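Blinded run. Sample ID left blank on purpose so nobody reads anything into the name before looking at the predicted structure. Input follows.
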Amino acid sequence: MTALLGVIGDPIAHSLSPLIHNGWLRAAGIDAVYEAMQVAEGEFPDALSTLSARPVIGVNVTLPHKVAAFAAASDASEDATILGVANTLSLNSDKSWTANNTDVPGFLRALELEDERELEGRQVTVLGAGGAARSVVHALVQRGANVSILNRTIERAQALSVRLGQGKAVHGSLDQYKEYIGLSDIVINTASFGYSGGYLELPKGRDRLFMDISYGKAAETQLEHAKKERWRTADGLGMLVAQAASSFEIWFGERPSEAEALKKCRHAVRIAS
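Blinded prediction complete.
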């Protein structure tokens, strides 16, 4: 019987996860299919109950269900427990679920792809303090980076710093971004202003890395500006593929090829643009 995997979210039609995972499943000769599953907010527990009666191996979870995914699991990885959110669920033989958060290793792997492997003592500015920033801040602090969290609502930046900073994170207003970025080795944008076509005017990059964890049109304007100011730039596709690879490894015990999947994703994004 063909096994089932998928990604649950709302909206979900735009997701590149089926493209990524079905390519890996075919390459590995695994009799399984990966589907996009639209589930409205509040309906996540019922959806999991329905899935548990099917030949499901596991599912990825995206907005708005990551908190609900963690709450639905009977067991969870250390990262998922610290963050209180999960993006990967695995179905156990007793029909319970195990939660993981592969955004953390996915983000670190995306940095490695940009030759940023050593983070100990580095100065990193994180723009934004929403859900996406949690995994980023946690990953950076675990690797010993000194993190500055900037957000329009300063209280949210402060709360994130207190919860995950471990004494290695400070917070400030997004209005102060030029001051913080001027002293940074790496800048990570998790804020959503790119979705409305906005961008921040950056100081000279001096070949430092500016990573926007979004991709496509949402990242295009900001990254084009960053390039003009001589930043090395990266969008969120590397993180997307890397976190997917970590999920695949959890489910099947083998790491798939990231390079081919990333190539397919870039092609799909270009066509969509």
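Unblinding after everyone has recorded impressions. The chain has a mean pLDDT of 96.
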